[in-house]
From TrEMBL:
Species assigned in the record: Luteococcus japonicus LSP_Lj1
Cofactor or coenzyme needed: Mg(2+); Mn(2+)
Protein name: Acetate kinase
Gene from which the chain derives: ackA
One annotated Gene Ontology cellular component of this protein: cytoplasm
Complex formation: Homodimer.
PROSITE patterns given in the database record: ACETATE_KINASE_1, ACETATE_KINASE_2
Pathway membership, UniProt: Metabolic intermediate biosynthesis; acetyl-CoA biosynthesis; acetyl-CoA from acetate: step 1/2
First-level EC class: transferase
Residues the record lists as binding substrate: 89
Residues annotated as binding ATP: 16, 206-210, 280-282, 328-332
Active-site residues annotated for this sequence: 146
Amino acid sequence: MPKPILLLNCGSSSIKYQMIDADTEGVMAVGLVQKVGDPTPGTIDHEVDGEEFHDSTYFPSHTEAIAAVVKMFNTHGPDITEAVAVGHRTVHGGTEFNSTTIIDRAVINKLVELSGLAPLHNPPGIAGIRAAREILPHVPHVAVFDTAFFAELPAAAYTYAIDTELAKKYQIRRYGFHGTSHQYVSGQAAQFLGKDISELKQIVCHLGNGASLSAIDGGHPIETTMGLTPLQGLVMGTRCGDVDPGLHAYLGREMGLDVAEVDTILNKRSGMLGLCGKTDMRDVEAQMLAGDEATQLAAEVYIHRLVGYIGNYIAHLGGIDCITFTAGIGENAAWVRKMVVEKLGYFGAVLDEEVNATRSKQPRRISTPDSQVEVLVIPTNEELAMVRETIRTIGA
Ligand code: ADP
């Protein structure tokens, strides 16, 4: 008997979903709803056993979008009512939620209270939870938090140097995000190396559209680049990452903008997009090869920030055994990995250029046998990590 788990990842305008059999860990269905909350018709793509099904209609809110997901399951299978649990990707758990949590009314109320910390991410997640609970009321729903893995960061790492009372009142601290991925990939890296995770000093580079690094000592996170929000840290597709905090006030004053407008500039119009007009690293590479100077500089800024954090983390870890690249850019952009690892020669990292340049979907070592640091590429699988978390939490 399969043990299907439905996974929902509700963004502001999209819903990604999967049904995974927790026993075999095989994907039973995968789909995507786009243009939720849009005045124009949206699309839904549903895939079962390699066969794709598409539909298009209006999705005024997440409720209609989830209803469309259920219709897809009802029409094309598998049977959604066989789901034994639903796992909801939930971006911000604040200080309240340190681990995966079974959702009840009180949890939903707490999530609503936390929305101020993640105004772009938590409200669509809550809408998805409400809609899914109405449709599947008899199975446990669990919230898997992006922040949970980093709940045990040391206080020196998570504390901002601001007024303590303010920090307490408004729950201001470093939270870190992509925790599910950092936890999963660091576990996979240890397994790949045939080592116990407790023996390893690791850095995980999760480089996707959003990007973050973590320093993990013996399986425990001791540093990460994202902060109160996912804006801090690395240069990202459209997010600036670290800037002088005075920039907000300066831009507001000079441009006559309110805080929301400045926030939009830094979140949506910055990063690689702001520097060279492209967010996708494939386009960035093409423009770079065509000799575009702004793109060359953008790539250098991207690498500079990344290498700076790696050096910082090696100091905090007091050494380094393993650096792992993951997510869309980390898994696919060989030139990014090459530019980074070439800067780490002082620490004894040596890249095997041939293996690095070879495309593969498998976990692999891209350092040479005599490299003093293991450099790996491990595909992340946040869905599988969510399934395992969901099963562990409901005790099935
Ligand atoms: P997210 O989940 O944050 O949206 P992903 O981890 O899926 O992001 O990564 C998406 C990014 O990965 C794309 O924007 C692109 O920059 C990068 N990417 C995907 N495929 C390739 C590739 N073949 N070469 C270089 N970069 C790639």
